[in-house]
Design goal:
Blueprint lengths: L14 E3 L2 H4 L7 H7 L21 H10 L4 E5 L2 H4 L8 H16 L3 E7 L5 H4 L9 H16 L5 E6 L1 H9 L11 H25 L4 E7 L2 E4 L4 H24 L1 E4 L2 E4 L9 E5 L3 E4 L6
Parallel strand pairs: 1-2, 2-3, 3-4, 4-5, 5-9, 6-10
Antiparallel strand pairs: 7-8
Helix pairs in contact: 7-9, 8-9
Amino acid sequence: MPRATFNFPSGFLWGSATAAHQVEGNNTNNDWWAWEQQEGRILNADRSGKACDWWAGRWREDFDRAQDGWQNSHRFSVEWSRIQPEPDRWDEAALDRYREMLLGLRERSMTPMITLHHFSTPLWLSEMGGWENDQVVQLFEAFTRRTVEALKAHCRFWVTINEPNVYANGGYLGDGFPPGKNDTKAALKVLANMIKAHAAAYKAIHEIQADAQVGVAHHWRGFQSANKGPLTSVVTKLHHKVFNDSLPLALISGKFDALQYKEDIPQARNTQDFIGLNYYTRELVKFDLGK
């Protein structure tokens, strides 16, 4: 039987990704922790608790496992609510902890990539309206500047926001993410603000670090009509336009166009050095007049 060995091209990065709330443990100052405390929000009333206990240092074990699996890169997120626990307070010890993680990756010959926002938002910001509040753009820029200034010596690959379309849908349409609203207008407002925040962060990062590579991690889902009905076809195309196309096209053209929400965001034009593409599954779409 023929045998062959295939190799990645030189410089190819092969790795995995984690989110702060998913792995650090005891993140008690963000909206996801508050969400977990509400009855009926999480199956079996499960709580994140210690999670993978990274904040206590067990990231070392997982980085060792990644290295043993021949990974040469890792993307992890920093927790905004740790770095800026209050609107007027920054925690340098938290930045030191993230710096230690970056050095840990370097020591294992792994290239780091940092995500600045991976679904979790500080409680103090949530209490101000979170991503619905226009002030979030300048607040996210300030957080970005503080973080990149502190960590730029050890990282040059930055994902500003992980899956803005999932965040907007999950929190404002699907009732699966905090704040658990069901409001199409609010969802599109959040997505527009995330585009503006990304654009502000993109500019700030390049001002601080000339050789930085900056992008968004975008979730793309294959929407497929479940039947041949004309209304099903229309709804399927609308799902594709809003969920898959509205964000990346805005980052190319500077124009956000999603259903009834249209806005010129010229500062977002051409603000990606790379595109992060997350793909998990297709989704069948059906329009049913009987429901």
